[in-house]
Design brief:
With about 80 residues, this protein is an alpha+beta fold. Helix content is about 20%, strand content about 35%. The protein has one helix at about 20-35; strands at about 1-5, 15, 40-45, 50-55, 55-65.
């Protein structure tokens, strides 16, 4: 599934492919924000770690079915 994270005052969003369900990702973000974590850490499908500053997250977009990757007129 593809995850996109918008960060305040940053023109480019963070994009990564991750394993898991949308509910698991939502729970991860909720837990980190409620605990007051300074950084939300994620691991993509290739094993790379990405940290997003918790207090600067503008939005989180989860694309579970790959709908954003469609190309052509059948959209």
């Amino acid at each position: 599934m593809e995850l996109r994270i918008g960060v305040v005052h940053t023109a480019k969003e963070m994009k990564l492919e991750i394993d898991g369900t949308a509910d698991e990702i939502v729970k991860l973000f909720d837990a980190a924000l409620q605990a007051g974590a300074p950084i939300v850490w994620l691991t993509d499908v290739k094993g790379r770690r990405l940290g997003a500053p918790a207090d600067k997250i503008a939005y989180v977009e989860i694309d579970g079915d790959g709908a954003a990757n469609r190309v052509g007129f059948g959209r």
